[in-house]
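Trying the structure run again after the queue cleared.
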Amino acid sequence: MSSFVDQHITELLQEGDERGMKMLYKKYSASLYGSILQMVHDEDLASDILQDAFIKVWKKADTYNPEKAKLFTWVFQITRNTTIDYLRKKQKKQSKEIQLEKTNVILEETRLEIEDVENLHSKINALDDKFKEAIHTVFFKGMTHVEAANYLDLPLGTFKSRIRNALIQLRTTVQIVVLILLTNS
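Done. Tokens:
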């Protein structure tokens, strides 16, 4: 259940009222900025990314559904995705700057990473639905364990057991899971 303040912010945002953005920024900008800064390690860049993320939030305000996620979770996911997009663009730009004779190696590594990600997705899809759902809420929707347990209407201990059991079943792809976790943190 979201707080009264979050409900009010949501209503203002969905009505296109700029006061909603001001309230949202005041309430969450410090936390979001901190998470961006952990990923990019550059204060000016973190500020720019935060601004881009808030612009996306403003433009997508009508798509927010409070029944699917808390306001902070939704805004955090947009912010995280904006940061990841920046990091990918930066990595792609750096890859293009490498000498031509090394390009084949980079393409081969990229292909392997894509195969690893596809392998991971196929292994996740092979899990029982209850385990697959637990993995998706935490690693793909960006929810905390508490938020995911509430979202799935499960006791926290049961949810944590499902995550643990799912990860045990995915043990053969631990290196890939760690790669995804590092990318999402």
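The domain at 99-184 is CATH 1.10.10.10 (Arc Repressor Mutant, subunit A). Worth checking whether this holds up in the mutant runs.
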